[in-house]
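quick q for whoever's on today - can somebody do inverse folding on this one?? i tried earlier but teh output was garbage lol. tokens:
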């Protein structure tokens, strides 16, 4: 399990603003500003009064001494709002060979340049030097009970990544889009083409041209996170 570096503190969300900032009230009453590592719209995740969990730090290089990691809802649902956590969770799972769909591989290389001005999240190679390009997306949106959706806003970058994976398949490589649902209340995933029609079209084109799709859910606690069960793609 990927552990948080320091013990999370409970707080109440006041507001999220400027995309990467959030004001919260710690349970002791102190109001602090926390870093919000999420470039998306955070639809349904940034309502004032939400119970949140922030991670304190004493790093002199960081301007903010808190980071918003989790949201917790009255029904017990946990959501990881830190999209950067997805790659860390997947990296740990790749090292442990937790995904049978990926077959055998002996090399894991993160953040490798490929296509046109892009970096693949993970490049896997087996003993025959066959390459698998693995792109990871963090999923936090849910507008319907039990159903996760991606994306939560228009994402030209996300559409480009699908195009890059199509290119890798055309070049004779294996390419996989991996969606990690970072909330505990969803067992299925759909593409939110009503939010971004272009992304929906690119997703359909990518699947038609041989790009594979994997969908898993993260197991979340206030201590850490790890890959959980597979979820259905609708």
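ok took a stab at it. sequence:
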């Amino acid at each position: 399990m990927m552990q948080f570096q320091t013990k999370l503190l409970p707080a109440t969300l006041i507001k999220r603003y400027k995309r990467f900032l959030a004001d919260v009230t710690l349970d002791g009453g102190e109001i602090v500003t926390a870093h919000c590592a999420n470039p998306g719209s955070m639809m349904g995740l940034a309502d004032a009064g939400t119970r949140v969990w922030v991670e304190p730090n004493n790093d002199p290089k960081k301007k903010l001494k808190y980071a918003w990691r989790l949201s917790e809802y009255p029904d017990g649902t946990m959501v990881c709002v830190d999209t950067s956590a997805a790659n860390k969770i997947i990296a740990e799972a790749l090292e442990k060979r937790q995904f049978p769909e990926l077959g055998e591989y002996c090399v894991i290389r993160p953040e490798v340049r490929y296509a046109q001005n892009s970096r693949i999240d993970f490049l896997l190679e087996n003993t025959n030097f066959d390459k698998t390009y693995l792109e990871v997306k963090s999923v936090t949106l849910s507008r319907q009970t039990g159903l996760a959706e991606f994306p939560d806003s228009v994402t030209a970058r996300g559409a480009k990544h699908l195009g890059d994976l199509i290119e890798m398949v055309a070049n004779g490589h294996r390419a996989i889009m991996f969606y990690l649902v970072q909330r505990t209340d969803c067992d299925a995933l759909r593409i939110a083409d009503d939010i971004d029609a272009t992304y929906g079209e690119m997703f359909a084109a990518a699947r038609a041209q041989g790009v594979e799709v994997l969908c898993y859910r993260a197991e979340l606690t206030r201590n850490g996170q790890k890959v959980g069960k597979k979820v259905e793609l609708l």
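fwiw Residues 111 and 121 are 5 Å apart (CA to CA). also The chain has a mean pLDDT of 95. so keep that in mind when u check it
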